[in-house]
């Protein structure tokens, strides 16, 4: 033993011990447990939601998403840093908005990046889409908004039949042709490719494709799988599998006010969890808390033989 | 100044082979509660092994191949057992007030391992390239962005989360675990709390 251990353990009786043997026994036991669980239960692997799936099975939802983004109604439009420059949208605690410090690092213009740019690519293959794009971009902002409002209102009464979505009559301008282009991109399985960062073909950054459906479509799927925020969100797993249960304290905070209702809820939860973690790390130095183990008395169970025979 | 000689002298003072590979233990080390740390370490080894196989074949492998899915199942349940072991180890050391007698460094490093492990678990979920990754990426981004962390860690950048999960964070965990083990073996197991000691739990 080192001089430090010799001094510390002076007068304490010892017993024979085999570190490696104990380690190997524990390793074998753990390996057996993991093997049995893996063979008996397998693991979850719920496939991702794709633009093609949504376009084919939920075309109205697909069109609502595309039209909403083009009309500036997506969650990203007014998100603030790191996507948009609206500093007032950043979450705050005690007047501080940490997101504003780095500012906009992933600049996004949802209408341009998620709808118009993919349509410009499609326009090279479709004269109809090219003409509709020219008409849309030549129109005033007021005219575009008017067409989109009418189109979104009509979508509420739309009926999908096979490959077509029937809308009530209205003054939609070129919007139906644009939305039909988006729907065709989706059905062809080309949406994600058209959305990838800057159009570069050699990228593993899926920010834009993932953000496209993040509002209603993803929430609808998550609701069916019991995975929305109010259902303890990301600590749940698909099916009957255990999820990230170690995040329960984190997801629990989202269930209670003010975090459950505040627009600053994410930052509030993050700050509270950071403080809780700091308390855990520095527990040995916190008067009162560091004495809890002695008051609990559970150590008497762990060291019961020592207290019975040596104390 | 010979740096090698000084390092050897320091190491010799701090720790011996008997500390590193002990053949005797104080008699108070006599409870299953002492096994949770070993269980966490063993599971970490299994996670490294199954993770290595998954990394070699790439993230798409386990979706299509039954063998890949089985290795993924081993990794999935390994994570569950790992966090269970880690939490039991943490609780055991808490009720033992194991930070006493100068062992606060061991406690702090241990809690940091827990924190890095939680973040590694998150990047693992994000690396699966399935619905879980898709949903967790768009959900978790809000907390990261609110904290300003989103500027450097983008939950939707699969290359970044995968690299963090298979290289950067495991390396951090291994380094912290080595430091933790060094402190554990150097200082030895903390003595049982003395009933007469009124200020139990106070670090020295």
What does this structure look like?
The complex is a heterodimer of chains A (311) and B (204). Chain A folds into two domains: 51-213, no CATH class; 217-290, no CATH class. Helix content of chain A is 51%, strand content 3%. Chain A has helices spanning 3-8, 19-41, 51-57, 59-70, 110-123, 127-138, 141-155, 175-187, 191-195, 207-212, 216-224, 248-253, 265-281, 292-296, 299-302, 304-309, and strands spanning 14-16, 159-161, 164-166. In chain A, α3 crosses α8 (175-187), α4 (59-70) packs across α8 (175-187) and α6 (127-138) crosses α8. Chain A is elongated. Chain B is mainly α and 204 residues long. Chain B has helices at 3-14, 17-20, 36-57, 61-64, 66-95, 104-126, 131-146, 158-187; one strand at 24-26. The longest helix of chain B is centred in the middle third of the chain and has 30 residues, at 66-95. Chain B is elongated.
What is this structure's SSE topology?
The complex is a heterodimer of chains A (311) and B (204).
Chain A: H1 3-8, E1 14-16, H2 19-41, H3 51-57, H4 59-70, H5 110-123, H6 127-138, H7 141-155, E2 159-161, E3 164-166, H8 175-187, H9 191-195, H10 207-212, H11 216-224, H12 248-253, H13 265-281, H14 292-296, H15 299-302, H16 304-309
Helix pairs in contact in A: 3-4, 3-8, 4-7, 4-8, 5-6, 5-8, 6-8
Chain B: H1 3-14, H2 17-20, E1 24-26, H3 36-57, H4 61-64, H5 66-95, H6 104-126, H7 131-146, H8 158-187
Helix pairs in contact in B: 3-5, 5-6, 6-8
For this entry, give a set of tags.
heterodimer; A: 311 residues; mainly alpha; 2 domains; two-stranded antiparallel ribbon; elongated; B: 204 residues; Cytochrome Bc1 Complex, Chain C; 8 helices
Task: Label the CATH architecture of chain B.
Answer: Up-down Bundle
Helical percentage of chain B: 55-70%
* Overall average residue pLDDT of chain B: 93
Query: What's the CATH H-level homologous superfamily of chain B?
Result: Cytochrome Bc1 Complex, Chain C
CATH class categorisation of chain B: Mainly Alpha
What radius of gyration of chain A results from the CA coordinates?
A: 29 Å
What kind of oligomer do you see? heterodimer
Q: Quick one: which chains have the greatest interface?
A: A-B, 103 and 102 residues
State the CATH topology of chain B.
Answer: Cytochrome Bc1 Complex, Chain C
**N-to-C series of helices and strands of chain A:** HEHHHHHHEEHHHHHHHHH
